[in-house]
Amino acid sequence: MSSLSLLPAAEVSPKRAAILEAATRLFLAGGYATVSMDAVAREAGVSKATLYAHFTGKEALFAAIVGGRCAEIAERAEEMAAHAASAEGALRGMGRAWMTFLLKPETMAIHRIVIAECARFPELACAFYEAGPGAGRTWLTHRLEKEQRLGHLRADADPGVAAGHLMGLLRGELYIRTVLGAPAPDDDAVAGAVDQAVEVFLRAYGAPAA
Amino acid sequence: MSSLSLLPAAEVSPKRAAILEAATRLFLAGGYATVSMDAVAREAGVSKATLYAHFTGKEALFAAIVGGRCAEIAERAEEMAAHAASAEGALRGMGRAWMTFLLKPETMAIHRIVIAECARFPELACAFYEAGPGAGRTWLTHRLEKEQRLGHLRADADPGVAAGHLMGLLRGELYIRTVLGAPAPDDDAVAGAVDQAVEVFLRAYGAPAA
DNA sequence: GTCTATATACAGATAGAC
DNA sequence: GTCTATCTGTATATAGAC
Predict the structure, then answer these.
(1) Which long-range contacts (CB under 8 A, 24 or more apart) does B48-53 make?
(2) Which pLDDT belongs to residue A88?
């Protein structure tokens, strides 16, 4: 019985939730500096005093937002991993899922923010790397090791290096263009680019005997 | 004779040069928002009024700085291209030159700034892409076409796609880690990563007959 | 062109009532 | 916890003398 009262730990306060939601929207849209605490309070429908009662300051609020997104990204990565591991044509499927996620406006927005503020919040940039690209690379390394044991990949390849290469091939031109503000490519363009990248990867890393 | 007076067009004003130098340093170190016009004036050793006499405002000053760096990057790209075209082991040499330039703290700083401000200054982000990654890819595409005509690359490869793939392989893990604040890797690490990337590229794109 | 001094606005953060 | 009202610093930008 007493454990029941511990369950809704996430829904501590509706005001706090409103603050987090509004601040997330504003930070992702405008970056760190352009967002004022006044704007967050107004957008969340609370007073500034309430805002400061929940978060000790602007930096703490920002850290909470970005840290939360990192956790979300980590969950998302596990979810994608679960799907990709069970699918055939695993590399293509995984590549499409990853690139679609990566190029989404919200993902791009958090990339830009973390990159922009990595001098002011180095620990956030580190946490973001670990939760995002780092976790993806670690998972992909293990996945490629498995493929290697199955004889689908060259035996002399370093799976960690190969994982970095596959991610680089997948990002390719699309990532750099999109992070610099170009409109996100449509699904067909993404799928085509992923197929090309996977084809090139397998030409370089596929087992010669296969 | 009259043409002589037109020559020193670049050295119009020492104060202006001091402003540009100070502003470049400050913007590259701190981004757009954290730099105040007071700080620029103080650091340049001029008054704010003088600052505003040379630049209509903070946005114009920022645009002048970043636009200037774009022009510099474009020049630098041509310079690197001239060297790489004449060298043997062209891909390795070019890759090392490009990655060394890309991972330099100053290059990373301008990457972060342009990415951070691509919502506020979309035309700057576009100019940066054209001067940097876009120009590099265009040049590399032509270079790969030439290699293809010489029979060094697969005949069925699209040189533009291949150029994007080579750049993606080169960037690989190093770029994303460094742009997220990790310390720049040393020359040996860069050289090793470039060699691996080029090796993989040639396994996928090298002419089968060769 | 260059300076000193200032106008004007808004930022982050808090005091005190309820 | 939540509000209204406010303190304090600093930002961009300008006025007017030289």
Answers:
(1) B50/B15, B50/B19, B51/B19
(2) 56
